[in-house]
Amino acid sequence: MSENRRRPILYNGEIYSRSVVKSSGGGEKFYPLSYDEARFNLLNDIEKTQDLVSGMSAKSRLPNEIILSMTLQPEFSAKSYYPENLFDLDSFKFGIQEVGSRIWRERKESGRADDSTKFSKMFFLRATEESFKKLKAHLNKSTVVLNKGFIQDVRKISNLGILPDSEQIQGIEEDWKEGRLEAVLHPFYIDRHLSLNHFLNTVGEFGVNTNNIKYKQYESGVTFISFNGTREMLGAITGYNPLRVVHPLQLRDLPSVERGISVNGGFEPPIFSKKSTTTIGVIDGGLDMKNPFVKNYSDYEFVVSGSAIESMVDHGTQVTGTVLYGPLNNFSTGDRLPEPTVSVRNFGVLSSTTDLPDLYEAIDAIERIVPANPDIDVYNLSIGPKGPILDDNISRFTYACDKLSYDYDKLFCVAVGNDGHVKGYERIQAPSDSVNGLAVGAYTRDMGNPVRASYSSIGPGREGCKMKPDVLAFGGCDNHPIHLISSEKNKKILGAGTSFSTPIVSSTAASLISQSESVINPLTAKSLIIHSSIAPSGTGHSQEMGHGILQDRIEDIVSCEENSYTLIYKGEIKQGKYAQFELPWDDSIVQGKAHFQWTVAVMTEVDQLSSDDYTSSSVEVTFYPNSDKYLFTNTNNTKIDGVLKRTETVDIVANPDRAKLLVQHGWTQANFPKTDSPTSSFRTESELRDDLKWDSLDTREYRKMAKNVKKPFFHIHALSRGSRTSNPMVKFAMIFSVKTPKAEIDLYANVLSNYSALIPLQLRVESQVDVRSST
């Protein structure tokens, strides 16, 4: 299609929706143990645990409460098998409260998981020594007086005990001697006001300067602590019962590619006429406000104590320049740059008051910045802690970004890190594992083709958003560096890194929101960027390339190709409920295949206590391509025409007599048309996780002969889990594209004509922003 034939995407799809009621269920669950067997094992575990607790010193535990770990049988990992009869919820039972969870993995002799490794769910429990007595007394009662729920919950338990010492220390190499650490303490109730000081006294006995410790205790009671520690001190807190995990916490280094080199061939700054009202928050190391390329288009505030670090000010200046101008590879020496169509509010958060910048001081600042700047929808984060993410641990940086995104409806665009070429450290780095954010990697060019830059960290992400990175933008490499502004006259910087690919995406996201007059919100902008990205392999998401490469121009994100349309749906659905959305279609299309593609994202509450159930909500999409075709099931084992079949699909409009015959012979017609979408019935929790059921983002593609598509629609099922969610509504944004390459009609025009509530998206003239990298 020629450029002038591209037409704007549509929005307001949610108008064509209605609520529906669907039944769900499964067969009787198989319990691997009888109640007597499970009861015997549990009583035995309690006896062993009591012995362990009685042997603990006062320094290794709190005076009143103890943390236990309880592992379920692998078959009972799903939310629906939550053993609520064992816990104090709305009423007192045994004095046992669930305070978090994570995935349990069967330990192999090698210490590593493989394809045969068993997975289950491990709960962390807060209890008292009195709790053991009450639970034992209840277990010793006759089954005649026990309720069915309690009996079934006991049969779900595989093991009860104390978390092994080896699982508290994570990500620390054998040659590690000292450095900054992050510790996470479990939440307590009786001992809540004692837990922090108890920990500080414990580490203080081993030379830790408690005056240099930073901490944050959130409403749930979980406590994050940042401190300088030593190998000797680690040995002292191994087995410390209130400790959930401890791991390294250090600011990412600036690799040589990000530091770049200064060369001749600079540009001329724009002639100032106006400053855009589209403001992007850049959270970084600082900003050189004397730089002529940024001074008229940026505001700057250093928001932590101490003074800025020169190298990090350079970094923040280059990041800010990339937000404003994008890559400068297409400009020649002496070219005057155009005025940017966005502006920047730069917040310096890295200080030289200590030997290393304190990331907790930076996080504290971010938690102040976001609520204080309601006009900023998009924040750029090209900084973060060093090292790959850990599945069983959620860093405070990640949790803070996710919580701020949810509480204030913001989008964090976060660099995935630059260790993608380092064996064993190549996985994405926090906080790019945030489930509400947009994780950005970097690509470069090889023989003219886009490829992942070798340094760009790779997926998978954490449980709750495994498909990371989200997208890639141009970040350059040694052979094809990205060109950046310099603070030296007539100079430019040749660099590379995810620090510079990320601001390209941040600028695009903010422009989409602002120039659409907020028709596009942060969640929709995220969905659109991912949906429109170009996957070089054409095979969907990959751990190296994400969903694909950011479109060069915003125009390409918000317009439709020939014989296609793209429609935005957004809204909220109550947890546990279903909504039906009509998908605009023209039944006269009978030539070729119809290609359906959708991207759906949710803005979810997160549970920092549960690394396996980190996302508290998601949505499940079921697509029905033909409203007339239903599945009939032979529930009476009756033969039709002398043939015994179990199921049959019938077009009830084209062949009503066949449908009537089946019903007369006792067959059952499904409540809804036939779907080719995967169903969740009778699948294990592990299989559901593999299918990304609980992820905050899902993308799918589906192809069907156009002649077999009639009045298509889809259902969105709002899902929730966990006991710590507060909002009954699930917020979502869905982008749905329909392509009919061989259609003999104008699909776009017909859809607009027949669905009058749909509105073409119009951006302000600034929408022609070019984020093209280079050739």
TrEMBL record:
Peptidase S8/S53 domain residues: 276-548
Stored Pfam families: Peptidase_S8
InterPro entries to which the protein is assigned, alphabetical: Peptidase_S8/S53_dom, Peptidase_S8/S53_dom_sf, Peptidase_S8_subtilisin-like, Peptidase_S8_subtilisin-rel, Y4bN_pept_dom
Keyword Hydrolase: yes
Single GO biological process annotation from the record: proteolysis
Catalytic residues identified in the record: D284 (charge relay system), H315 (charge relay system), S499 (charge relay system)
Keyword Zinc assigned: no
GO molecular function terms attached to this record: serine-type endopeptidase activity
Keywords, ordered alphabetically: Hydrolase, Protease, Serine protease
Family: Belongs to the peptidase S8 family.
Protein known as: S8 family serine peptidase
